[in-house]
Every structure is written in structure tokens, then in C-alpha cells.
Amino acid sequence: MAKLVLPPLDSTLLTLLDYLDFHAKHNADQPYFLFPSSNDLTGPMAALSFGEVARASHRIAHILRPGREGKDGDVIGLLLHTDTVLYVAVVLGALRAGLVPYTISPRNSAEAVCNMLDATNCTRIVSHDLLAALVAEVRADRDARGKRLHIQDIPDLLTVYPTLGNSHAHTSVEAYPTPQVPVDIDDVCVYLHSSGSTGLPKSIPWTHRYIAKWFRLNLIAGARQRGICFGAMGLPTFHAMGLSQQLFFPLASAHPVVVYAPQHPAPPAVPHPQSIFALARASGCSALSLVPSVVEAWARSDEIVQFLSTLQLVTYGGGPLAQSVGDRLVAAGVRLRSVYGGTEFSGPVKLWPEPLSAAPEPLAPSADWAWLAWTAAATARMVPQGDGTYELVLFDNEEYPLAVYNVHGEKAYATSDLFEPHPTKEGLWKIVGRKDDVIILSNGEKIVPIPQEGHIGTSPLLMGAVMFGRGREQAGLLVEPAEKYAFDPRDEAALIRFRHMLWPVVEEANSTAPAFAKIFKEMIIVTDPAKPLPRAGKGTIQRKAALAAYADEIDKLYETVSESTSIEGIDLPRAWTEDELIPWLSAQATSVNDDHEPTPDKDLFQQGFDSLSATFFRNRIIGALRATREAHLAQVAQNISPNLVFEHLTIRALASFLSRAADPTLSDQPSAPSGIAVADIEALVHKYTGDLPAAKATRPAGKPAPVVLLTGSTGNIGSHILASLLADTRIERVYTLDRPSVRAPLERLKAAFEERALPADMLDDPRLVALAGDVTQERFGLGAAVYDEVLGAATHLIHNAWPVNFNLPLQAYEAQVAGVRRLVDVCAAAPRHVRLLMTSSIGAASLWDARRGAVPEAALPDPAVAASNGYSASKYVVEQILTGAVAKGLGATVVRMGQACGAKATGAWGTTEWMPIMVKSSASLGCLPAMSGPIRNWVPLDAIGEAYVDWVTADGALPAFVNVVHPRPTSWDVVLRGLREELGWLPVVPLDVWVAKLDAMSGVATADDLARVPALKLLALFRRWAAGQEDGAEGVSSLVFASDNLQHSSPTMRELQPLSEEHARMWVRYWRSRHYL
């Protein structure tokens, strides 16, 4: 690797792009980002080089503003919750495109986001599906107010970094056009925003001149001198501290920064004390920037404290750190320092001795770790407040410019932060609070209490209310009852009644507050009549004196809250069964998650949960178990894991776990899907087949060019069907119909193609018309003109959209069943012949008796064969609907789908299915499970897509049923050999031994373990296989399915070659390309 060349900090380089291009020329192969190359952190760190980051900026610039069309200086909002490496590239790409990026926190409300857009005349944003709900609210506001808003999807990770992790595999990129006019150093480079702690966030412009100052700050310049490698994995990029560590420091120093491994389009890694520590230790970084809550969590571990003592520097900021914690760390040799700054004025702290020496000395542990000194570059004035505290006011100067001013008649910024001087050492200061009484939580979030206190204080129940929580993980509320409601708070029954009466007004106050400022019922303290709140002469509560008076009660509350299992005012579950637990758990989850009702089958942490809400949720579950007063439930409560919610990520998974744990006869048994009543299946069949219409049109004598309406085109199978249709010139037109989303239909298709390694340029085909709609709605949710156009042109209707969830009851699928009946009615009423192809599943025969031979390619008269779960039963019902429709003259084919596996051409196989989950987990466990016997029913995705083309272009009549299974089965031995070869010849162990390894982890698994070994989430399934309750790893797929109709109707299937070792190797390579392995 070439010698490192440090960029000059003397204003030779004026802009961020100047620095980036300097490194692209002089330090192209030097690492910019370091991140794990493997989930278990055993391998070397992967890297993205300065050269690759520079090339990424050109790629993104081309995407955001092709050809540099339009004018420079337009603001583009970045409303993103994505990986650091992608976020930084988008910032730099926007700058390259001549745009002004606005890094917007995704934690903001829609009102706050709209306020920011208005303040900066921003009419376009970059976002993605993870923030669809927030974006939809913003779009609705813009539409209602007649304001233009263009929403662009964030580019895919591998589009931005095509050689991700291999910095030497240089890829060419077309240089983006340079600006016609030189950049003015006083132009706005980027917008950030304030925290909104005193109202709506304020937009803060950062000019090129202001940013250049950051590069010369004491913190960055001193760390550059010492060759420090920062671990900044716990910092959000949209924040000023995140930008300084993840963008400014690498550009200023030519040294890398350590971040989490990218995993877009999945949500980015959630910073967690354990994962930050593990990555810091594995990466070899020499300094860490942390929030106080992480430092406090680490201080309890001798192992972590010892590791921290080996680092050159550990900084914390954004909130206070308990004195006892810092003292313990320093006593153990940790070089701990407090840092301080603000979006409006950067960081005035002197961390390293000044002037910076050419031969710098390392820092030593210091008893003054919590105290701050100001850099000589800053003009700082400490303004006395008359109570022993001082407000910091900073003045603009050439070496230390400010982003904004707020002092009338002065180029100065009054921070509102209050400090106290060191008792013996002049020039040292400690932050103690804010003039506006903002509560700074231990995670750095800031709460302005006045609006919530004011709203709650209007209740006739109260004389006053004071919020507290400085330096804590969550806020609490101290309330003083009005005289006629006063009571002794030691009276538990009276306390419960009073909290219950007060709770509606607290909920109202919570509804207007940020999520992190929400007050939980458990966090309310009621004053003692014998100790009224202290008040000033004019009757206002003296906040500091009030909190001091109740300091003991507040401390005691925080000491017990993590163990608190109070369920006062909360109804217990009517029974500890899955059916009763789902609504009860949903109600509790709603209560602790800012009143957002969760979807039972969706990851709670993708619905707003964080570690705090998970703690309260777990505590309520334990409290309910104890309150039931049954001995075995008390034992269950005692054994509940601290990671309960991380281990069971959905409401349904929690309900299943708790129902089994609560039943003494089942607590040691694996969970199995509940069966479906045959009578329910028959009733639904009768409901939707009783009045089927006769087909109006007969098959035409001629054969018109196929026009296809395809539903579900963004899924695994649907994407490959669409790709195959567009690849065939005989197809005249393809309409796709996918459920409405915040993104345009074509954008979603492109994302789906890119995810599955399909050529996205196929979607530029003029024959494609991408629509948003839903077959369960009238006219498919389309406008009348579009609906008439589609139905007037279509010759084939491929219905491939169907939710896959084996835990849902049959009733949950009725809307989809009704949608199929709607399709049948539409096709039957069409004036021209329309053939309907419906994607079903071999699961519709899941309980077929193998002694009867192969499952036929025909309707199955006994509904009991599909009674294993709601999904299979729903497919059986629609098969019966189509069977009845065929009898009425409709041209319809049931495509009974086997296991769709990785495509022949690309190996693409979606990572949410059991097979990739098993392989990923095996890589972490260090062994593969032994499987044996034939694999009959796995069919490559692209072969499935090509088969649909065979049916659409067929000259003759099609059969009513086809079983899509492989005509030439392979064996598990072949697949395992291919997997082992690509995975480094992992040993193969008996299935029960492999499952035992999962069992050993399950009781102590952390959130990181669940990410590395996702098979833990399917443990019940693998247990059933190991116990022989299902036939091998195929389950229903071990049945034999007839395939004569399939082979006669599809040349693709007739000629399909067996799956080979190379297919298995391709699957692994695909999963690696998506950073799944």
C-alpha cells in the first residue's frame, strides 16, 4: 500500500469534495471505512477505500442529478435510516451533484420534517421503505398544502459500492460534470437541524468555511497527529457528532473510521453496548466516541473496562455521566474525557494540549475527566447567572466561525448551557444544566419539559407537575395533587386510583411529545402532603428545590424500575393461551410504544420499539405472570430471559412462547402450528363457490399476442416471472399490479430486480406498465379509465400475490380469497377470452396420505389434506374456486408451486426462507446438519418464470392443474457437497446434534446471537425435524407429486436439468454478495 499522504489543513483545500478528491489522488487505496467481514467477527476487517468512496460519490451524483441538469444549490432532504457507509456516500454524492444535502433525523415527527422543508425551500427528499409511514405523512401534508415534493429512493448498496469490501478491485465510473462556477466558500454546504428540545427543530446551515474550521478543531487535529483510528459505530450520521467522526475526521486525517457492517436494504445495526464493544475489540480501533448510557453499561464489566484501558482515548458527550462511573474507569487506567459541542457552534473543547506539538504526547488518565477547557481558537465568555453557574457564550472569529448567531447586535451565540467552575483549577468547567431547564437523558436525547408539564398541570386533579430525568435513561413526573385530592402516597390502593384518574391527561401530553420524552405510568411520583413542592413568591414551583426535596424518592424509583413489574390498572390475560395472549400483548405493546398498535407478525423493533420499551414490555409480562398467583406461572416469571423481546421479535412469537411456557404439559415441547378446522375450510369454499358465473367468452379461433396482468411482481417468484415475460418478444404488453406504497411502482420493481440480481434495465421496456393497486378492492383500486384499459387488453391474468405466514388463521386470508373470486368474476364477464393462472402451493396437500401414492395434478376433494395451517387451507380454498370456475367454462390453471430455490443464472434465493437461514446459522455454528434422501420439489426461480412464459404463449389448451416440482430430483448429498465446498468444508453433524447447539444458545441468546444464528427464531421447526415429527428438512415436500401435466405443458420444465453442486455453490455466492453471509 502506498505511503499515507496527509491533506493540508491550511485552506489550500476549501470543500469536502476537495478533500475527497485529494485522497482519491494520493490515498486511493487507503481504507476510509473499516467494518466486519463476518458476522462472528473472527475474520479480518473489511474496508472501503478512499478511492471507492470517491467513485461512489460520482455514481450517486449521476443518479440524483443526471447530466447536472437544472441549477446548483437546490436543497435535498436525506430522510434515511440506513448504514453509515451508504449515508456518507449519499451526502458526498449530493454535494458532487451540486445539491445541498439536509441530514434529517428519522426520529422527527412529520410536522417537524415539513417545517424543515419549508424553512429551506426543499422540494425533494431521498428516503426508503423503512420510513414509508413517515414519508407518507409528509407527502400528505405537502399535497394538502399544494406544495411540490419529489421522493427518490435511496440507491442500492451494491449500485453505490459494486466492489464492496474489496478496495483493490477498482471499478470504472464516469466522472460527474464539474460546476461551471467556482464554489463560494461562504455558500451553504449542508443543512443540519437542532434537536428540537425547545420546540420544532431549527435548520442550521453549515457553509464550506464553517466546515473547514471543523478540520482544524483541537479534537480532530490532535487525533490526526496521533494516528488515531476512531470507532464511531454508535453514532448516527445525521447528527453533528456523527458527521464529524464519520465524514470530517477521515477526510482530515486520512485515517479510517470503524462502523457497523452495511446491510441495506435491511435496517442498519441497532447500536447496543455489547455489539459496540465486540466490534471495537475486533477492529483494533484506538479511540471511541460514546454516549453516556453505553459507558455506564460497560462500567459494570471488568473485561470491558480492561479493554478500554488499552485505548488512546474514550470520549463521551451529549449528556452527563455519573461521577462514580467515570471515577471507576479512570482508576482502572481508562483515558476518559468529556467532549462538548453544538450544531450551531461546533466543538470549542481543548482535548489535546495546545499548541499542538510536532511530537505529541499521549493522554494520561485524569481525575478531571468530567471537566472541560476551551480551545484558544474559540472566543468564549462565561456569563455569570448569579447562582454560581455561568452560561457559555461564543463569539465569531476568523479561526472559529459560528454557524448562526442569536445575540442581538453581536456575532455571537449564547448556548443556554450552564457550567460551574472547577473549585481549584482555573479554566476548567463542568456542564450542570440548561437555562431553559432542558432534561438531558443519558443517551443524549433532550427533553424540554415545559409543554408537557404545562398540559398536565391544567388537570383539576393537580396543583403542579415537574418532570425529571437528567442523566437517566427515561423521564419521570413528580405531581402534587390538588388539596381535595391529596392522600398519603404510601396508600397503594389510593395511589393506583389517583394514577388511573390522572392518566388520560398524561397520555394527551405524551401524544405531542417526542417518543423519547414519553412518560410511563410506572414513572409517576405523587408528592406527600407533608412535603409540599417549594414555590417562589409568585406561586411558581422552584424546580431545582423541588427535585432536591424529592431526590431520595426519585433515586429509589430509578433503582427499582428495571425490576419493577407493577401492573396496576392493567387487566390480566383472560387465559395464558395463544389466542388470548395475542390481544393482551398487543395492548401492552401499544401502551409502551407511544400508542402505536403493532402488527402481530411484524418485528416489534421495526415498529418503533427500542430497548426502553422492550424493558417495560418485559416487566409487564413478568408482572402479569406473578399476579396470576399460580406456582408454575411464578416459576415461569422467574425464568424469563432479560432478552425476552429480542428473542421473540413479534407479538405472535411471544404469545406462542408464553402459552407453551405457561402450560405445564407443553412447556418443554416445541411449538407447532395450530391445525385448521375442516368445517371452516368447507364453509369458506361454499361461501365463494356457491354462485360462480358462467364464462361469457369462448376461446377465440385466432391467437392474439399475449397481454399479461401480473400481480405480486416484486416478490421472489413474481420478479422472475416479470423478467421472463419481458425477455420474450412475443409478449405484447405486461401490466404489473402491486400494493400501493410510498414509492412509485416502477421504483419498487427496480429495487426488487436489483435485490435479486436481475437486470434492472429490462424495466425500461416500453411494453411494461407498472401500476399500484389491490385485487381485493373494487376495480383493483385503479381509476376507471386505467381499469377499463387493462381489462380490455389483457389476455392472461397471473395472480401471484399472496401473504406467506404459517401462523395466521384461515380467517386472516379471507380478503385474499375474496380477491381471487373477484378475479374469476372479472375474467368470466370479459367480452374476450382471458386465461387466469393462479399461483397455489403444494402446501394445499400438506396432510396428504403418502400411502395413496403421488399427489395428483387435480382438485383434491378432501379439505382435510390442507388443514395444517391457515396458509395451506387458504390455497386449498382458492383451488376449489378455480375448479368450479373451470366447470363454468373459464380458462383457468392452478399452478401448485413447490419450493422455489435459487435461480439457475444468479443463485438468487431470498434470505428470509428456512434454507438460507439454516446455512447462515451453520456458518456461525461451525457445522452443517446432516440431511439425507431425495430433494424432489425444489425448482429454480428463473425456471419458474420461464414456465409461466410457456403457459402464456402456449398454442393449445392448458391443464386445470400443474404441480411445479422438479422432474429430475437430486439428493441432499449433492447439495451438501456444494454448500461445504463454498463454505470452507464445514463439518457435517447429525441433525439432532446441530439442533442441540441451537438449544444450548437459545436460553442465553443476545440480540447479536439472533442476528448471527437466525435459526434460533425457527428452533421449533428444526426441533420437529430432529424429532422425526416431519419427514426430513422438506416436510410436506417429501411427498411425491405427479408432474405429467407440468412436463407436457412446459418445455422449460420438461428439459430442466437436476440441481447440482454448482447450484448450491451459486446460492452461497449470492448470499455473500448480499452480505448475508
UniProtKB/TrEMBL annotation:
Residues making up the signal peptide according to the UniProt record: none
SUPFAM superfamilies: Acetyl-CoA synthetase-like, ACP-like, NAD(P)-binding Rossmann-fold domains
Keywords: Phosphopantetheine, Phosphoprotein
Molecular-function GO term, any one: phosphopantetheine binding
Entries under InterPro entries matching the protein: ACP-like_sf, Adenylate-forming_Reductase, AMP-binding_CS, AMP-dep_synth/lig_dom, ANL_N_sf, FAR_NAD-bd, NAD(P)-bd_dom_sf, PKS_PP-bd
Pfam family, one: AMP-binding_C_3
Polyketide synthase-like phosphopantetheine-binding domain location: 579-662
Protein name (record): Acetyl-CoA synthetase-like protein
Lineage: Eukaryota, Fungi, Dikarya, Basidiomycota, Agaricomycotina
